Amino acid sequence: MIKLIATDIDGTLLNEGQDNINPEIFEVILKLKEQGIMFTAASGRQYVSMRQLFKPVEQEMIFISENGANVVCRGYEMSFIELNQRNAEDLIHYIRKQPGCYLTVSAGRTMFVEDKDPEFLEILQKSYHNDLTLVDDVLAQNITPIKISIFKKDGVPDIAEKVIAEWSDRFNTVIAGELWIDFMDYEADKGNALKKIQKVMNIRKEETMAFGDNHNDIGMMKSAGESYAVANAQPEVLKAAKHIADTNVNNGVLKVMKKLLV
What is the pTM of this model? Predict the structure, then answer.
């Protein structure tokens, strides 16, 4: 019997960077909770952004944010995994030098950015609903980063292999969507976050269902007995999944969740 559902957002529930979630999912989340099934959203998005997206049910679910670096339930922080400060500084200097790349630094409740490009800022605020702090020099701020990201408007596939090769010895470095590469501590992973939730709630892997579409979802899917890739997922994710759900635009996750209703 399934007791825990975890799903990615961008590319799995929604198109990348969108907020037009099917409102039917809120009713399904509540009905599943009445049956003893807890719902978890897992994303590279910050907690503030995710909470806004799921506002009608934010007190009835668990949030795995920042690709597993921050786990929150009803405002209680179950996990907050910091980056090594020296490595973070080196990475920030590196990203600043990469053509076409924008730097974001997440510190839990806000995201620090240095670039004043109006289109970039609009994407972060209007599409992702991030809480932003615009600064001239993020290194001059007294912050504790938990995730650093590269955002690239025309997509990251052309740089991903090179970047991952350069930084995977110091960070958990993952492609987090068409436009993002995320850097976290090695412990910060959606799969590890899901395992923490399972331990706290005394839920077994076999009682867990997970959905994903991209490389940063594979760890989470491996932590679930019933793993689903949406049909639009990356080839590696399709291969790793036990089942295939319909595409994100066809409400694949919602369709599978509704089958659990009794």
Answer: 0.91
